[in-house]
Description:
It is built from 18 helices and 13 strands. The protein has helices at about 1-15, 15-40, 45-50, 70-85, 115-120, 180-190, 220-230, 235-240, 300-315, 355-365, 385-410, 415-440, 445-475, 480-515, 515-545, 550-555, 565, 575-590, and strands at about 50-60, 95-100, 100-110, 125-135, 255-260, 265-270, 275, 280-285, 290-300, 325-330, 330-335, 345-350, 370-380. The longest helix is centred in the last third of the chain and has 33 residues, at about 480-515.
Amino acid sequence: MAAPKKGRGVAGGQSRPGRALAIILIAMVALTGGMFWSGHTTPRLGIDLAGGTSITLKAKAEPGQESAVNETNMNTAVGIIERRVNGLGVSEAEVQTQGRENIIVNIPRGTNEKQAREQVGTTAQLYFRPVLTVADGGPPAAPSATPSGSASGTPSAKPSSSASGASVGEKSPTPTATATTQGRAVSEALKAPSPTPTATASSSAKPKASGTPQATPSADATAALQQKFATLNCLDPKQRAAAGQGVKPTEPTVACGEDNPGVWAKYLLGPAEVEGKDVDDAKGQFDQQRGMWIVTMDFTDEGSKKFQSITGKLSQQADPQNRFAIVLDGQVVSAPSVRQTLSASAEISGNFNQESAQDLGNILSYGALPLTFETQSVDTVTAALGGDQLEAGLIAGAIGLALVIIYLVAYYRGLSMIAILSLGVSALLTYVIMALLGPAIGFALNLPAVCGAIVAIGITADSFIVYFERIRDELREGRSLRPAVERAWPRARRTILVSDFVSFLAAAVLFVVTVGKVQGFAFTLGLTTLLDVVVVFLFTKPVMTMLAKTKFFGNGHPWSGLDPKRLGAKPPLRRARRATAPAAADPKEA
Length: 590
């Protein structure tokens, strides 16, 4: 009974090739349909094939910190810029150093190219500074004859801003003030120590010292800062950009902030209490209750302690000294008032839309650049050179494919049709998957990736050859085609899997240890190696099983590639056994 079961097993294996073919056919239809449904019917191209933008950034050190431009900081900046750009879905972006102080960023043409250009050189230095005083950001007004005891006046309309939910008050309106009033406000603010829980804006007694040691500005520094605040015109873009440049975090400074489109305020700010490195995560999201886009931030453990300390102090103050300014790259993006102590998280609200909120969250999540960069050049890269190289590569690939087909036809004859069909299925799956991976993970096809696809032609053809030669070996042993197909498969399968595993392992190692365009070669090589296994198991083997039942292949037609005479096959095993049986019986009869 054991022998018939074994025979039925072989027959069953031969009679079910349609199941495997149905699986791969359904997969091909589903993937192709998904490609057309997504609207991305062609693979995304890298900068060498599609063109794009090449940006050159030059590192600038702050005065007295020239040693900051070093290899460590440059490599850190490269990593941050690369994460920012790829965080926007712009894959295949190249970020690398050039010389001692330059960074080259190559961004392929794509939907997020503009956003990436805006973010690559943004320093993203984030500070939380206490507000000492605030005034209208327009041109300095002439001294007024009317005395005023404080920097108050006609408020201008402003949107509300908060620092974490309902526990924080709204942003106070920005007062207008004359130059004389502003000067007096600056002097009083700089003379006062940092806010403490026992201090108020109108207290005449000297409050307790702040927990963070801060140097008291000298008379000359106070006068200079007073003059700078009084003459600052936030409507002038040059003055806005230069307002807080070259100021250390431990020093007071002035800055501008846009409350509404075209409405600016200027701020006198104390030393920074919390820095951007204290932010653990940030993201832009839509606040359903207020109907506006905000940026939420979660702090590290150390940042939470700092934020708790500063909000605890500010919550005891009167406006505007109960407010902290969120300063990004020298500009105030929000200045909310504080009602109670906060610690775990904060939010930035203001004039955000979806794009600007998500951009700021992306920048803050990946950290600030350790250096300040200025854009040296922004060049548009054309695809002309890459197109010529691609054309040459495709010609080389076509020649190689043609030689493979000629060899298969000349040596394997009818079997070559199975190999050619399998190559076509593999090529179709490779193209469709590459087209889908563009919008899915940002994969972009570059010249090395094309080379990887060309190399894969040989890997795939090698799998067919291994299987065909195993079948021929079985035929040489005197077996008929149908049993030979089934008996050859386990041996060929092991060889194919080992060979493809080695190729995939090499591609994986190459992908991990390399950067830039070489990763495109490794990724494509690994992808096509996996597809080779799928095609051989689900297409080549089932098709071979079905064709073995036809007269053309089953009877060993001379053009089938499986002619027993041409292969030098031995006599059939059953006939040989019958011929030797009487000879073995003669001695017994004797």
